[in-house]
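Q: I'm writing a short methods note and want an example of a predicted protein-small molecule complex. Could you take the sequence and the SMILES for zinc ion and return the bound structure as tokens? Please keep the output block clean; save any remarks for afterwards.
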Amino acid sequence: MSETQCTICHDSFPLAQIFTLDGRAVCAGCKPAVLARVLSGEPAPLEPVALDARVMGFWETVGIGWKVIRTEWLNLLILGLIVAVPLNWLLEQVPLPDDESMQTTMRAWRLQQLGQTVIGVLATLGTAYIAKERLEGRRATLSGALRHAVGRWLSAIGTAWLEGIYLTVLMLLLIVPGVIFAGYYVFTMIAVSLRGCGGTRALS
Ligand SMILES: [Zn+2]
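A: Understood, no commentary inside the block.
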């Protein structure tokens, strides 16, 4: 007997038990939820995208990013504000150096970097979570995104710290590979957020 996959829960069912709702195959178990969503006029979730299945082209990536922003802009905006407001407040508490000596300027700059790493990473983690949920056809709640970000926070900070050490070592060994890896590590935080790994595994 031929089986069909439910587009919501991805389990396989005999064709007779599959309904077509809102243009997608849905099993009996998922039908009420889809029906409720259609009746409430909420837009259908985006088709799930197999992010690992292939390397996406640049414009495809931009297109998906734009879709996520368009549908999740409110959550992303609130998340950004939740992170940016205390971050800016904290940075303003850092006293500006009285003298313009190299050492005090460097210290103030380092404090700012630290603040951005420690707090700003929350926004990165939360944003990645919202995008991932959207791409897998679910809607992330703001509290869910924050819970996820806080849950991965320590791991992300640890990874950022490790990253700093790695980069320093690489820079010392040779400038060029360090620069290449710096570009590569932009994606590290996204890996920490989505793959549930941290530290050296996120860096590899
Ligand atoms: Zn189902």
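A: Remarks, as requested: The chain has three domains: 3-40, 65-141, 152-204. Confidence is low (pLDDT under 50) at residues 49-54.
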